[in-house]
C-alpha cells in the first residue's frame, strides 16, 4: 500500500501497532451491483422452471361481442394462449349483452388444452305493436296484455305470437327474439273481420237488428262481423222480416230491397167456460184461451163451440198490427138427469162439487160430467154422464160394500197360460167356513194320523178343476216321463202327470207364476224350495185344509167317500183299483169295473158337487203341507198352511192303484217326498 507523503516531502513513519492488538477489519460494503447477477440468475431459473412446467391453454368464448377474460393466479398470456401450471384457477368472463360468467378452470398435465365457454345472453327488450291498437297479446300461449305492449323481456329464441281484436281477423305468427339486451319492435297490421252489408226496405225506416242488437234503420250500410248472423227488420204495423247472413270478411253484401208484409192483428180470445173449440173462416185454431192472428183490415168469420153450449159466431176485423181482447160467455144447453142412489145416505158430487145426498134431479149443461157417489163403508163409484137437451135421463147407482166390490172384481173362473181352469171358492158362501178335519176313532178303516181338529177358512182361493196333465207339465220339463205300469202307459198327453216329487210340483207352480207375472209363492235357493210366502198370490199346491174342504164338505155334511157313506160303491164314480187292474195292482174293489187299468184321461168321470174332477181317484195328490200328526184336542186353526219345514209332505186322495176301504175314504192321509206312479197334483192360488 503506498504511504502518505510527509509535508515538505519528508517521509514519516506510519503508526505501528502490534498484530495481536490490531482492531478488526470492517466487512467490505456491497452495493446493488453485487446482487444483480445472482438475482438475474435466480429469476432466469424460476422463469425457465415455470415455462418448463406450464401448459398451453386456449380459452374460447362463444359470444357475438368481444369478451373480457380474467384468470386468477400465476399465468402468462402469449399470442392469445395462456400459460398455466396444472391446477385450478378462478375464471371470470364478461361480454356486452351477456350475463357475467364466474367459474373454475381446471388445468391438466396435457401440453396443449382448449376450453370453450358459452355465457348466457341477456333477454331481449321486445315491444309488440299493432294497427289498430288494443289487440290482446299472447306469446307462447301466455296473455301479456294489449298492444302497444310495455317493454317485454324475452329470452332469445322463436316464439308463437297471437293477436286477437274483437273486430279484426286474428293474427298468428312466429317472432325471433335476438336477446343480448337488444331492443326489438314487432309491428302487426290487422285485417278487418267484417264486411259492409247494405240493407234497404220497402217501406223505409225499419229498425235493423243483427243477432237481436239494434244497428240502425233502413236504408243503411253496416259493418257486420264475419260468420252466420241473424238479420231482422222491424216496423210498426208490419211483420218482422228475418234473414240469415253468411258474412265473410272483406266481401261486401248488397241485399235486395226487402218488402215488409203488413202485420196481422192479434185477438186475445177467452171464453166462459174455457176449452171451447175456435175456428176462423172455417179453419180450426185451437181451444180457448188463445191468441188469434187476423189478416189485416179483412173481415173474418169467428166461431166458438163447446159440447153442452150454444154455438157462438161473429165477424171480427183488425187493422195491421192492432191488438184486441175478447171474452165470450157461452150459453149453456141444459139436460135433466134423474139420479137414483142406493143407499139413500150416499153423497153425490158433480165435477168434484157436493150437490147433496141420496136421489137427485140434476139440470146440467149437455156435455160430459164426472159424477161421484160415496159413503163410508162402501166402495166409491165414479161415473161419467152426458145430459141431452129436452131428453130426461135416469141413472141408477147402487153402492157395494168393500167386500161386495172386492168379490165383484174377482173372476169366478180363471185360465192359466197353459189352458188350465181354476174355480173360485169363497168359504162361508161356496161352502161352510168352519169344518172338522180327520175322522172319529170309531170310523171303520180309520188310521192313527187322522186326528180330529177344527179348521176355519177365511181366505178366498182358486182350485184347478182337474189334475195337471203330462202335456202341461212337459212345458215346464220337456224330458219328463211318467212311465208305465205293467206295459200300461202312464205317459199319454192327457193323463195326469205322475212320478213327480213334491219339490218338482212346487217348482212347477213357481215357473207358471213367473210366466204370468205373479209373485212366486215358494221361496227357492239354488233350485231347492226352502220355504213359502203366505202373502203371495202365485200358483201353489192346495193346503191340506183346502183339499179336505173341497173333497168332503157338502153343506153341513162331511162325506166319507166321494160317492157317499156306503162301501163298496154301487155305481161307477171314479178311477180306482177295479177288476180291469187286478193283474197290475193285485187288489181290487169287489165287483167294481171302471174300464181303466191305470190312470185315465183327466175329467173322464163326473165331477163332485163343487165341479172338481178326480179328487177321490185317478191319482192321489200332493198338497202343500209338511206332514205331521196333529195333537189330540188341538185348538181351532184359521187358514192353516202347516209347518214351515220338514222332510215329508202330505198326500191326499186315493188313486187308480187303491181298492181298500181305508184308502178310498176321503179322510185318508199318506206322506212322502219322492215321485210315485200313482201320485200327481193340481194347482191352487189365493184370490187376494
UniProtKB/TrEMBL annotation:
What's in the keyword line of the UniProt record? Membrane, Transmembrane, Transmembrane helix
Q: Which PANTHER family match?
A: FORMYLGLYCINE-GENERATING ENZYME, SULFATASE MODIFYING FACTOR 1, 2
- Known InterPro entries for this protein? CTDL_fold, PEGA, Sulfatase_Mod_Factor_Kinase, SUMF_dom, SUMF_sf
Keyword Ribonucleoprotein set for record: no
Species lineage: Bacteria, Pseudomonadati, Pseudomonadota, Gammaproteobacteria, Cellvibrionales
Q: Which Pfam family, giving just one, matches this sequence? A: PEGA
| Protein name per UniProt | PEGA domain-containing protein
Task: List the SUPFAM superfamilies.
Answer: C-type lectin-like
Task: Give the organism, scientific name.
Answer: Kineobactrum sediminis
The yes or no answer to whether the keyword Membrane is present is: yes
* Positions of the PEGA domain: 125-191, 194-255, 265-322, 336-401
Sulfatase-modifying factor enzyme-like domain segment(s) = 434-685
Q: Where are the transmembrane segments?
A: 34-54
MF GO annotations: formylglycine-generating oxidase activity
Q: Where is this region: Disordered?
A: 1-23
